[in-house]
TrEMBL record:
This is Uncharacterized protein. It comes from the Bacteria. It comes from Ornithinibacillus halotolerans.
Length: 139
């Protein structure tokens, strides 16, 4: 099967491929090889299409996005990280707090969910109001 892309579509595809490959491989010591292979295939196709955003390293025999394009994608990744951090933090804290108080309760699953949601909402409210200002870690 052959898929044809316009230059504009290919510009978007390389950005999506970079974002996906970065998401999958950045937290790993060993990259997922099959992802790297398809990523290289996409970059090679874009390079052969004449996209200026791609550079080829003869010594490594690899294709790379130019730094300004990588920076663009990494900015999106930072936005995503910030979003997921603020979405996840109240949930994790609420689950922790519930675990600390569950010996005082005998909740069914629905009551457990409602209590965790209640705690989570209080954290969300606090973080929206003060961010990290009142967050303290006790040792």
């Amino acid at each position: 099967m052959k898929v044809n892309f316009t230059k504009k579509q290919m510009q978007q595809l390389i950005r999506i491929a970079e974002a996906g490959n970065w998401l999958a491989n950045s937290p790993r010591d060993e990259a997922i090889e099959s992802y790297d292979e398809i990523y290289q295939y996409i970059l090679e196709s874009a390079y052969k299409m004449g996209l200026e955003e791609i550079q080829y390293d003869k010594l490594l025999d690899l294709y790379f996005l130019k730094p300004e394009v990588e920076d663009e994608i990494h900015q999106l990744a930072e936005e995503y990280d910030s979003y997921t951090f603020w979405e996840t933090l109240p949930i994790k804290l609420a689950e922790r707090d519930y675990e600390r108080e569950k010996h005082l309760r005998n909740d069914d699953p629905e009551s457990r969910f409602l209590r965790i949601t209640e705690i989570e909402e209080s954290y969300i409210e606090e973080f929206m109001e003060d961010g990290f200002e009142k967050l303290v870690i006790k040792k």
